[in-house]
């Protein structure tokens, strides 16, 4: 079964050069974090990956990141998608650099893989060779450690995670039990970069096999 890349679309971007003090307090920002950048995108996992990349390319921190219930097909408006993320930094220039890095990842880097022509059956088997501050904190690993970011529809995700763990010397550090907000599932696995890639390959093959023959057990 041949897969096609399924890219996310950025729907809206805005910056706040000097955020209101009460708003900063609500976001629990540190005293020097006065500038904010925010974006929405059509695929949440690519959004999380992109914001993590922002923390590697600029002196920024992810201060808010959420998936929307039901996914992009059930979004609250034309610019909502299924994800919103906010980064904070000490200056507008730093935040702009972070947004630029996130945008580059969304447009040219991470992508889902589609198993059908209309993109309704898709999965994410993405390897991050070196994590930034956001995903390393989420996964409770050292910043800079490799990570396999594996996401699929409910049954595929559970079956695929087990296959990934058996295929390589990796550890499951975060399990996203289905249903997530977007009705998918998956997990974050860590190990060496080569082990993470082997795990991602095993996850991919498992998802493909299920798609080819869903009722074979």
Automatic annotation (TrEMBL):
Q: Would the keyword ATP-binding turn up in this protein's UniProt record?
A: no
Per the record, the major location class is: other
Q: Where in the cell is it found?
A: Bacterial microcompartment
UniProt keywords (A-Z) are: Bacterial microcompartment
Q: Domain of life of the organism in this record? A: Bacteria
**SUPFAM superfamilies for this protein:** CcmK-like
- Protein's recorded name: Ethanolamine utilization microcompartment protein EutL
Q: What is the protein's species of origin?
A: Fictibacillus fluitans
Domain BMC circularly permuted: from-to ranges: 113-217
InterPro entries in alphabetical order: BMC_CP, BMC_dom, CcmK-like_sf, EutL, EutL_PduB
Which PROSITE patterns does the record associate with it?
A: BMC_CP
**Pfam families for the chain:** BMC (PF00936)
Its gene is eutL
């Amino acid at each position: 079964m041949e897969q096609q890349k399924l890219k996310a679309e950025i729907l809206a971007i805005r910056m706040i050069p000097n955020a209101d003090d009460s708003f900063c307090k609500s976001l629990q920002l540190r005293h020097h974090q006065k500038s904010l950048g925010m974006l929405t995108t059509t695929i949440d996992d690519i959004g999380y990956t992109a914001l993590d990349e922002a923390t590697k390319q600029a002196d920024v921190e992810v201060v808010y990141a959420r998936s929307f219930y039901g996914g992009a097909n059930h979004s609250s408006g034309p610019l909502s998608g299924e994800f919103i993320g906010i980064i904070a930094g000490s200056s507008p220039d730093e935040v702009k650099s972070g947004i630029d890095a996130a945008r580059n990842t969304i447009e040219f880097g991470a992508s889902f893989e589609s198993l059908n022509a209309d993109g309704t059956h898709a999965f994410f088997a993405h390897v991050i060779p070196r994590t930034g501050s956001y995903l390393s904190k989420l996964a409770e690993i050292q910043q800079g450690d490799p990570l396999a970011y594996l996401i699929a529809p409910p049954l595929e995700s559970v079956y695929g995670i087990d296959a990934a763990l058996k295929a390589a010397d990796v550890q499951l550090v975060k399990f996203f039990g289905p249903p997530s907000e977007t009705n998918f599932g998956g997990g974050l696995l860590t190990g060496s970069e080569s082990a993470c890639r082997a795990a991602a390959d095993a996850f991919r093959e498992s998802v493909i096999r299920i798609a080819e023959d869903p009722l074979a057990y």
